[in-house]
Every structure is written in C-alpha cells, then in structure tokens.
Design brief:
Low-confidence stretches: none
Shape: elongated
CATH architecture of the largest domain: Orthogonal Bundle
Number of helices: 6
Radius of gyration: 23 Å
CATH superfamily of the largest domain: Winged helix-like DNA-binding domain superfamily/Winged helix DNA-binding domain
Order of helices and strands: HHHHHH
Number of domains: 2
Length: 123
C-alpha cells in the first residue's frame, strides 16, 4: 500500500488522537489534497510549520498503529474473509460433482472452511 493511502487510513482510524491543529492540517493535506503552501496560506503559518505538523502527525499515527494495531487486525480479517469466499466458491463449483461420489471429501472441505471462519472470530 502506498504511503499516502496508508497514512490516510491511519488518520481515519486514529485522527481523534491528534491535536485540533494537527487534525486540521492532516485533513487539508490528506482529504482535500492541498499543497503545503496552500495550507500555510489558509492557516497563516509557514510552509515549514505545515511540513513539521504533518511529519509529527504521521509519526503519532504510526505510533498509535504500532501500539494498537487496528489496521493490521482489520487487514488480517479481510484476508481471511476473502479466503473463505474463495473456498465457498470452489465448494459450490465442486458440490454437484463430488457430493454423490465422495461425501467424505466434501465433509473434510466443509470442516476446513468452518475452521477458517472460526479463526476469523478469534482475531
């Protein structure tokens, strides 16, 4: 995932941990796509001040994710859900062929699928 997108997602999740000024600058930079110069002019601060606020805010957001790990947790859930969806699709395609020929094999596949779903609940 590209840095801009990653920080934007962290801002969405942990933005409430920032100061009002940091939130304002991050919102203008990440959500409104304003340049440092445009933000500096709008907030009557220097371009360097905007740059420093963004860097400190990014560090705070990254530290929050390192401690809490919500984004990483959410990504793991999405991967598991995607795996379950793929497995279900495969089983549906195989159902007609295998059900009559080898119900034990289908039962094992369904058990594995159930175990994956249970892992999602354990996260």
């Amino acid at each position: 995932m590209e840095k801009f997108t990653h920080i934007g997602m962290l801002f969405e999740i942990y933005g409430g941990l920032l100061t009002d000024r940091q939130r304002d600058v991050m919102d203008l930079y990440y959500n409104y796509d304003l340049s440092l110069a445009e933000i500096a002019e709008q907030l009557s601060i220097s371009r360097q001040g905007v740059h420093d606020l963004i860097r400190r805010s990014e560090l705070a957001l990254t530290n929050a994710e390192d401690c809490i790990g919500y984004l990483k947790y959410r990504d793991r859930i999405f991967v598991d859900i995607h795996d379950v969806e793929k497995d279900i699709s495969r089983l549906l395609l195989q159902l007609n062929d295998e059900f009559n020929h080898d119900s034990g094999k289908l039962r094992r596949k369904l058990t594995l699928l159930r175990d994956k779903v249970m892992r999602i609940g354990d996260l």
